[in-house]
Amino acid sequence: MILTQPIQGEYPAYYDTYFATLDKGKPVIEQMHEDAEKCAKVIAALPQQKWHYAYDQGKWTCLQLLQHVIDTERIMTYRALCIARNEEQDLPGFDENAYAAAAEMKHKTSGIISLEWISVRQASLSFYMGLTEAEAKKTGKANNNLVSINALGYITVAHARHHFNILAQRYF
Predict the structure, then answer these.
(1) Which of 118, 162, 165, 158 is nearest to 3 (CA)?
(2) Which of 9, 12, 52, 141 could potentially form a cystine with 145 if both were Cys, beta carbons 3.0 to 4.6 Å apart?
(3) pLDDT tens-digit series, residues 130-170
(4) Which of the 8 DSSP states describes residue 49?
(5) How far apart are CA 53 and CA 56, in angstroms?
(6) Distance between the two ends of the chain, CA-based, in angstroms?
(7) Are the CB atoms for 143 and 155 separated by under 8 Å?
């Protein structure tokens, strides 16, 4: 097991809420793999009339929420890659609302979103599975916070689960 439960100080404390979505005792790589298929099925099952639905004013539509999950996974895995390759600069943060507003969504279908989700998740999986123990322990700075590659793997899975839970609770 390359990735192990991160300890406080390896990541910003606000991710603790997300970590509650993880299955304790089950390797996070296994959870990452299981969620790839499970979440793709949720995307495929989402009725087309719900794609542009937001459950409240000022909330993202289903499509925006899904794109946010995909964008964030890309960013977290990119951060892990940078740290693995000994990047010394503080990696930038991102404004999730600005990203959501800038994402062109009108042309996206369930097929495109599903493909994008599976592709990004497979890229994350192959990256984390290819790490050595020494690489997984490396730390760097992202958005002015110390973070380990190990923690970024957990954040990647927990963040997606958090948002897929919101999707199931508030959009279906």
Answers:
(1) 158
(2) 12
(3) 999 999 999 999 999 999 999 999 999 999 999 999 999 99
(4) G
(5) 9
(6) 36
(7) no
Asked if 166 contacts 64 with a C-beta cutoff of 8 angstroms, the reply is no
Closest CA to 69 of 18, 22, 140: 18
How many angstroms separate the CA atoms of 136 and 66, rounded? 27
| Phi-psi group of 9: left, alpha or beta (phi > 0 → left; psi -120 to 50 → alpha; rest → beta) | left
- The DSSP string of 61-123 is PHHHHHHHHHHHHHHHHHHHHHHHTT--SPBP---HHHHHHHS--TT--HHHHHHHHHHHHHH
Q: What is the DSSP string of 13-39?
A: GGGHHHHTTS-TTS-HHHHHHHHHHHH
Which of 18, 33, 35, 37 has the alpha carbon at shortest distance from 125?
A: 33
Query: Which residue's entry shows tokens 């997300």?
Result: 18
Distance, CA of 134 to CA of 145 (rounded, Å):
20
CA distance linking residue 167 with residue 161, whole number of Å: 10
Which structure tokens are listed for 96?
């999730």
Residues in contact with 49: Cβ distance below 8 Å, sequence separation at least 6, in sequence order: none
